[in-house]
Amino acid sequence: MKNVERILVLASAALLLISPKVFSKELKVGVVDIQKIYAAYDKAKKSLADLQAEKDKKQEEYNKKAAELRKLNDEYNANKDKMKDAQKKELLAKIRDAKRDLDSFKKQSDEYLVAKNQDMTRERIQEVVEAAKAYAAENGFDIVVNANTTIYFAQPLDISDAVIKKINGK
């Protein structure tokens, strides 16, 4: 019985001596700055430029509608003393409709542009995250963390520039 206890104690001691070496593989850690990568991502820049072009087009349409409303207001103010009541009512109804149309157009345009921006940003951020994951897997990283949620990291751990090159195909 004492031999069995002695063997168990020696085996346990051997395991304790060996196990740190078996489990002490160094982790390869990387840090990415998602915002930096997003800002340098060519596809994100193009999406933002496309969105700005749509915004400019909507602004142009809004300006035309606003000019029509101003024209109706100017016409009313210039001629209200000379107009009959029926003409005034008709012109005021046109002004009211034009104002309602302008407000509705502005609201719908703003909602559309905000939704499109959110969708586009979400898609591009997901692409950035996927590129960071792919880079990490290809280069043997065990863990990659976001720089914006990390209090401190040594600069050599930052792989953002490498991910930017990968995502832009350079």
CATH C-level class is Alpha Beta
Mean pLDDT: 89
Would you tell me which CATH topology applies?
Protein Binding, DinI Protein, Chain A
Corresponding CATH architecture: 2-Layer Sandwich
Radius of gyration: 33 Å
Proportion of β residues?
under 5%
Q: Please report the distance between the alpha carbons of the first and last residues.
A: 69 Å
Total of domains = 1
Low-pLDDT windows of residues: none
* Annotation field: number of helices: 5
Strand order of the largest sheet: 1-2
Per DSSP E runs of 2 or more residues, the count of β-strands stands at 2
Task: Give the helices and strands as they follow along the chain.
Answer: HEHHHEH
Main sheet makeup:
2 strands, parallel
Molecular structure report:
It is a single chain. This protein is mainly alpha-helical. It has one domain (25-167): 2-Layer Sandwich (Protein Binding, DinI Protein, Chain A). 76% of the residues lie in helices and 5% in strands. It has helices spanning 2-23, 34-40, 42-79, 85-138, 160-167; strands at residues 29-32, 143-146. Strands 1-2 form a two-stranded parallel ribbon. The protein is rod-shaped.
Explain the layout of strands and helices.
Blueprint: H1 2-23, E1 29-32, H2 34-40, H3 42-79, H4 85-138, E2 143-146, H5 160-167
Parallel strand pairs: 1-2
